[in-house]
Amino acid sequence: MVEAVQRNRHLPWQWAAGDAAYGDKYDLRQAVAAQGKWYCFEVSSTAEVWTRDPRWQVPEHDGGRGRPRSRPEPTASSPDAKTVAEVAQGLATRAWVRHRVTEDARGPREYEFARLRVIEKQHGRPGPAGWLMVRWPLGCRDPKEFKYFLSNAPRTVSLAALARVGCLRWTIEENFELAKGELGLDHYEVTRFRGWYHYITQVLLALAFLKSVQCGWGKKGVSATVPEVREILEVVLPRADWTPEFAIAWFENQQRRKRVSRRSHWRRWFRGHPYPT
Question: pTM of the prediction?
Answer without folding.
Answer: 0.72
